[in-house]
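W.,

You were right to be curious about this one. When I first looked at the sequence I had no strong expectations either way, so I just let the prediction run and decided to look at it fresh. Below is the sequence, 321 residues in total, followed by the output.
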Amino acid sequence: MSAIKKKIMFVSMQLATYINDLLYRYECVIIPGFGAFLTQYRSAKIDGITHTFFPPGKTLSFNRQLQTNDGLLANYVASVENCSYEIALQRIRSFTRNLSAELSENHSVAIKNIGDFSLNAENNVQFTPSEKENFSTASFGLASFVSPKIARENLEVIEAQTPLLFKPEKRHDKPYLKYAAVGLIAIAISGLGGMKLYEGQVQKHNFAEKQKANTLIENQIQEATFVLENPLPALNVTLEKEVGHYHVVAGAFRIEANAAKKVRQLAEKGFMATSIGQNKYGLHQIAYSSHEDRLEALQMLRTIKRTENKDAWLLVQDLNN
């Protein structure tokens, strides 16, 4: 086995674990410079030939066209391995270079519990997803199973050869019991009618009393007068500036006046826009928002890239330093 392939296997085992974790929470996980894994929900199904029952889950596919880094995988690697964002991104890029080199030599590369990569006859990347993993949290722990075929037999009705004969005994009715039953039924009917009449009278009485109470309350409300002799003074609230290690960057400007103008424009749109200082190139950086939580910042970045600015990016930096 070549040294490159050994390195790919070692790094791919690490990345496979990280990608597995993210695919349970996100529908799109991008490997920068290589492609994106996509998940889509599928319902439960039955294979009528093998009699196999498959639970609901998510189908996994690969899109070669989605290669732009959205920061999701690199930030997750950096947080798990306790390294910087740049180092995590370098490891991912090294993996993609080695993976592309192996594929160019017509070697297939397998990523554990995710799938296999290879080149087809047109030198296009071919992906075959693994059937072992189900990325649906709702179906976690459910596995496919095979049910034996149910054999159905036709049951014939067998007639009895000897018929069963029985002769019922003659019953002697007692007349006084018949009259007693009729009397009890008449008493029950009359009692039920009296109960219905009583319930009707109670309902009418309750309705009339409720109407009187509602009229009294309305009159009291109309006569009431509310006067505030000493109104409270206006309360001024000062909101603290939102800070954090993760910043969704809207752009960088060489002229500070243009940066301030951008902050005002974003504020008019409802963003908590701030100036996060100058970078090493002397440009004034403007952020849509800053966050302490990394996942919250990534969610905001995805929303902004989809609806506001596709060129927005995530800066990981402690502004106090």
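Here's what jumped out at me. The mean pLDDT is 76. And, maybe more interesting for your project: The chain is about 40% helix and 20% strand.

Coffee later to discuss?

I.
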